[in-house]
Every structure is written in structure tokens, then in C-alpha cells.
Amino acid sequence: MLPTPKKFFLTAASAEGNSELTAFDNALLAGRIGNINLIRVSSILPPGAEYDPELSIPPGSLVPTAYGYIVSENPGELIAAAVGVGFSEDTFGVIMEFAGKCSQKEAEARIEAMLREAFATRGMKLVDMKIAAAEHRVEKIGCALAAVPMWY
Amino acid sequence: MLPTPKKFFLTAASAEGNSELTAFDNALLAGRIGNINLIRVSSILPPGAEYDPELSIPPGSLVPTAYGYIVSENPGELIAAAVGVGFSEDTFGVIMEFAGKCSQKEAEARIEAMLREAFATRGMKLVDMKIAAAEHRVEKIGCALAAVPMWY
Amino acid sequence: MLPTPKKFFLTAASAEGNSELTAFDNALLAGRIGNINLIRVSSILPPGAEYDPELSIPPGSLVPTAYGYIVSENPGELIAAAVGVGFSEDTFGVIMEFAGKCSQKEAEARIEAMLREAFATRGMKLVDMKIAAAEHRVEKIGCALAAVPMWY
């Protein structure tokens, strides 16, 4: 089997670029996850996974990551992305992602609502939350992203 | 290298949610794959992989999964998702996914046609098929999904 | 942790199919990566990874791959996809993908510009590039794709 991640952190950032993909790449760099290989996952925090905001991951590593992002080519538009981790008492957690044409505050509120719904559906008690979000006013081509990289 | 999966099953389900992502999350839960980390793959059944509908996978595990899904916010709309596995005589199989605004029956028919095409293109004999599908009449925000999780 | 890839190659191809997914499947087959499980990654060439155009990967393997593709159902339309790997002097490289309604030449030019931007942003010297691209005039349902599979 693939090894289950043991550590995680949250990051959110935004950037401009000359193209859609380089705006995304620049936002990843601004979020300090630009030099690794993100593998997108949906989106459970493994039981016992430890929060480690100082995690340093070697370049090129394959990193299971839950993330949301939005790229906009409309100058002046406000975009935002948020991720949240909901923690249970003693087992796995749930990760939610959101990105849209809204403020950081609205993105955060959506994440919080989604986490509450996810725990209610599972009949689990939500004991804590961590949320990271970023907003960005587009100049030319802009990207907002938020991510929960998981590691070992 | 990443270890090649040895087991698989099929699942299909649908659900409502308060948002796009929680509708998806609720459909995953209804399909009994809501508490794992899906890694999306395209989409070959490894040679010798064994069908195990009773597979139980620990929460938070990284699970290579071929899947298709659709989320709709149009009340009254009929949506469906299907997956199919086509089996060869003695080597790998092929997995196909489909999701759209149609009935379960149509989604299944599309999967069957895609599997036949995939085997014809490869010059391989299609000796058996397994298909799983779900349809859903949207109430507020609905999701239909179908998946082939692969495991060890 | 997941093992970091040690080898890579580039491929680009196009094909027709009877559906969106089988057009994609047929393009993968034309590019000689149709019988493996692609895991999409974004998109760094690990330090020391070796170029091996003769790589043969067992069917069903889980293969971290950076790729771009486009499917079109508009007969007569020209579509193209390109990938590029930018190499640094002595550390990791950067992979860029592009797909759109344009010629192969334009797709290649975009990749080159994106690689230059990615290295400039990182303050790294771009010492070499490898690019693979394909274009396709759609007959019924066509797909152009370009990929950098990474392996061990």
C-alpha cells in the first residue's frame, strides 16, 4: 500500500503570472510549495497526523495535498481560496477546500460551514478547526490558492 | 516505484449537500469511500488484481481510484454516474468512467460502449465486464458518483 | 514517504475516439502510455532524474505524470498540446504543460515562455529544455495530449 501521511500543514497564497499555469506556479511558490510534486487528494486527515508548520520537503517529492485554487484573467476581480482542517476527538479529521470570486472572509465562512456539515453528516464531534485563506485583486492574470500538504 | 494495486471493488452512490463539495463528500460517504484519500488515476486494472467487494480500507489511506462524478445545482435535474471494468483473458483490464445529465441506464450503456471501444483499439478480447452506476434527481445540490477504488 | 521518481521521458500524441474519454484513451495509447495508471502531478523534475526515452513500464503501474490535454468535438478544429522540461545547472527542473485550440508551433512557443518565466521567478538559470508537442485536426471527437511520465 501507499504509506499514509503522518504530518501536515496549511498554506494559502496568491500571485500574478504571465499565463494561467505560471500564475498557479507563482502562487505555489508564494505558498512555499512550488518546488514539489503535488498529488491532489480528496481529503481526509489521517488519524494521528501531526501539525508541523515548519515542515521542509525536498524538491521534487511526491506530496499528497488537498487544495483549491482559482485563476482569473479579469483585471480588478477579487478572488479567494481557503482550506480548512476539522479535527475530531480521537480519530481522523476532514479537509475542505474552496475557491471562488469572493473575499477571503467569505471563503473562510464557507469552509467553516462545510466542515460543520461534514462532521454532522459523519455523526462526529468537531473539536477544533484550522483554516488558511488568501484573497487577491487581479491585475492581469491572478491566482489564489490554499492547500493542505501532507507528509511523513 | 509506487506499489501496484492488487485488489479492487466498484461503488456508485448519490447524495445531496449544502454545497458542491459537501454534496460530493456525502456521495462518497454513501458509497462507503468518504473517509479515505482518493488519488485519481486513469485507468487500468493491473494484471491479476482481485475483485474484493468486502474490502475495508483504514481511514486516511491513500487510495488510487478511477472515478467519475457530476454535481448539479438545478432542482429536478436527473444526473447519473457510472464506472465499468472490462476484463481480458489473462492480462490487465481497462476502467472507464462517465458522468452526465442522463439516466443510470444511459450512463451504463455509455460505459459498455466505451469498454468495447477500448478493447477493440487494443486488439484485446473483452471477456467480462462489471459496471456500477447511480442516478439522482436533484433536490437542491446533488451529486452522483461512481468509482473503482484499488487497494492492496 | 512516497518514493521520488528517478527517470522520465516526454511524449505527445493525438487521436480520434467515439467519446471524450475514449479519444483521450486512444491518444494515451498513441503516446505509448495507455496501459498504465497516470497519477497527475504538478510538476517538478526531481534532482538527478535521468532522461530515458526507452523506459518500459509494466501495465497497471501507478505512474506520476505531468500532462496537459484537450478534447474537442468540433470537426475541423485545430487543437494542440505540449509539455516542456526546463533543466537547471545542478538541481531540480520545472515541467510545464499546455493544451489549447492552436497549432503545435504555438503550443511549443507557450511552453518555452512558461519555462523561462518559471526559471526567472525562481532566480535559477535555465540551461536546457526538452519539449514534446502534438497537434490534431478534429474529425469527429479528437484529443491532443502531451505528458512527462516519471518513473524509477
Automatic annotation (TrEMBL), chains A, B, C:
- Annotated InterPro entries: Pyr-dep_his/arg-deCO2ase, Pyr-dep_his/arg-deCO2ase_sand, Pyruvoyl-dep_arg_deCO2ase
- Report the source organism: Desulfofundulus australicus DSM 11792
**Which cofactor is essential here?**
pyruvate
- Its Enzyme Commission number? 4.1.1.19
Name the Gene3D superfamilies for this protein: 3.30.60.30, Pyruvoyl-Dependent Histidine Decarboxylase, subunit B (3.50.20.10)
Q: What are its GO biological-process terms?
A: L-arginine catabolic process
GO MF term set = arginine decarboxylase activity
Q: Which family does it belong to?
A: Belongs to the pyruvoyl-dependent arginine decarboxylase family.
Protein name, UniProt field: Pyruvoyl-dependent arginine decarboxylase AaxB
Q: Which domain of life is it from?
A: Bacteria
